[in-house]
Amino acid sequence: MRSTATEGRRINRRALLRGAAAIAFGAVLGPRASGAATRLLVSTARLPDGRFGLVAVEPDGAVRFATPLPGRGHEPVVAAGRGEVVVMARRPGRFLAVVALADGNLRRTLSAPAGRHFYGHAVFGPDHRLLYTTENDYDGGRGVIGVWDAAAGYARVGELDAHGIGPHDLALGADGRTLAIANGGLLTHPDFGRAKLNLASMQPCLSVIDRRTGALLRRLVLPQELHQLGIRHLCIARDGSVGFGMQYEGPQSDTVPLAGTWAVDGTVVLLPLPDATPAETRNYVGDVAVDATGRYLAASFPRGGKVGVWDLPAGRCLGLVPAFDACGLAAESGTSRLWISDGAGEIGPIDPGRSLARSVVTPIAGLAFDNHFARI
Amino acid sequence: MRVLPTVLALALLAAPFSATPAAADPARDAAIVARAVTDYIRPATERFARDTHGLDDAVEGFCAAPGGDTRAALDAAFRGAVEGWSGIQFLRFGPLVEEHRLERIAFWPDPKGIGLRQLRRALADRDATVTDPGQLAGKSVALQGLTALEYLLYGDGGDQLDAFRCAFATAAAGSLAAVADAIAGEWAAPDGFAQRLIRPGSDDPVYRTPAESLAELHRALTTGLQVTRDQKLKPVLGDTPDTAKPFLAPFRRAGLSVAVLAADLSALGAFTAAAGFARDLPDEYRWLDNSLAFEFGNAVRAVGSVELPIDEAVYDQTARGRLEYLFVVLGNLQTMTRQDLATALDLKGGFNALDGD
């Protein structure tokens, strides 16, 4: 990896335009290299030259690497124990890229199996060995979870039923045994790109399955009058409850709930948005996160340029953080801070326990953070 | 030391995305919105309502007196309604998306043939509820509207409508005309949706400023171009004749797939011209007005010169070449509207906001 780091210091415009190679930023040789897997923000992005890639940024804005990808990525999933990050293609893409955390080298690129495309999200099992990916069995018109063995070169080792149409985001349950899956409910087919084929009859749900047997353990379907609220993103709080964010496919002047929680005992809370208008949310949540204490939930509204923050025990919306084109959210471990990334290339935290003011850094001019990032 | 050299290298690459946006101009934005509604959307929704009533009459005329003349009138009326639909199908906001109207008018695309299965079952079962307009409106969207009528009139058994098919088609045509009336009525109402768009205000749930109303219309234009290019043309054409899938084309049974492409492009071009999106731009963007008109002209001419039905056109060297050219022109139009026009109009659509997931 040393040679790449050396190359990285000599990177120039031609090299960036030419190569698919990672652009290392020389971090590997410095003293911080020993802590390669700590305090790093890893995000899909549009690079300043217009290509899509993966960037790794330290919290002070120092860029560790920017690696071009075969296409537009969606969620980066970190396996710190393996020293790598898996990047899923954005739907209806078919690539799965494995990138080294230390220097951004592209370790391998895989493809979705025949008859499947990725939806853009994935999660590792507790030991970072098995990787679970949301996928579309498009001729069967059903959602599936692909299972890959990272220890065996990411061999495809199985497939589970998602128990819903259009599985998008998924997360590992607090017990390490279950997977929570946000089934957005939208039927799509690669022949027609991203076109939504069943808006009138869509039926989103959350499903919880046993990740070893695929057995359906729990399922949440919202009341029929909310059937056009696609449940697209989720996160797991410390107490095991599922926080979720939704996207409304009905008329845009309707006021609908956009985020909620689903406790282990089955209690469902649809979070109130008393002072927000549809113009501020555009009825569209791009990402959700619960802070490490489990008290605060954030949902981003990239189309409205806001991030909503709730105090969960109080069941109260704390307010909307103005954040133009912000989508990605991630919790900082050990604190109540929640990090926000945006399309203007800014990234930084709020601390809901103190104030909703957001501090940001801008790592590289012309960079646009894409929908999701991971914080380690 | 660690970061600086590479950051500088990357900064050089920022140029393509750093074009200075034009200044905000609420008066110009409001004028575009008013022209779009008055000079395009209202007349187009009224035309579609008239077309669907014409189709309703033609179905009844043919069913009352089947014959060559009444069938020719029915074919012409169906084509008129399909072309009229092209005139408004890209306006996917407000009245068109209330009560699932978009899907009730045309259940397309349907790559898994869900609609076809439902239609065949209703015909095989002689399901009487589909012959009653009131009950039909509450049934699956796939059994209503133009896509259902297309199968009834041009699918197996569509040349000679039996009594059940006639009753089904009459109910579908009547229900379609009612939906078209509702859309035209809501756009025409002096205190309705159009007024919210034309006179945005801070108390409106969606349109607070002229720029937000304009963004809605701009999005309709770019989405419309995308639907025509990426849904109606790209999968049909395939990368090569070997991968062409003409059976995916809209209204193929009625032989109207090429006519749909032509009508879509005429409509998008007419909408752009009537609204005058690029009419009052700062000097550095003034080229857009002519360039948009020029490319829409190229697109309409290209598709107008395709004389074969889509099933043959994708395999015919000349016709395929014209459709491939059309695909390129549509790509240019997408770039021009999504990037140049958006920048010129100071529409601050963000990277995540515009195209999220």
Automatic annotation (TrEMBL), chain A:
Q: Which InterPro entries match?
A: Haem_d1_sf, TAT_signal, UCP028101, WD40/YVTN_repeat-like_dom_sf
User: Signal peptide location in the record?
Assistant: none
Coiled coil, from the record = none
Put simply, this protein is called DUF1513 domain-containing protein
Q: Which organism is it from?
A: Thalassobaculum fulvum
TrEMBL record, chain B:
Kindly report the protein's main subcellular placement as a broad class.
other
What species does this protein belong to? Answer: Thalassobaculum fulvum
Q: Where is the signal peptide?
A: 1-24
A Gene Ontology CC term for this entry? cell envelope
Q: What are the UniProt keywords, alphabetically?
A: Signal
Q: What is this protein called?
A: Peptidase M75
InterPro entries, A to Z: Imelysin-like, Imelysin-like_IPPA, Imelysin_sf
> What is the top-level taxon of the source organism?
Bacteria
Compartments it resides in: Cell envelope
Domain Imelysin-like as annotated: residue spans: 45-325
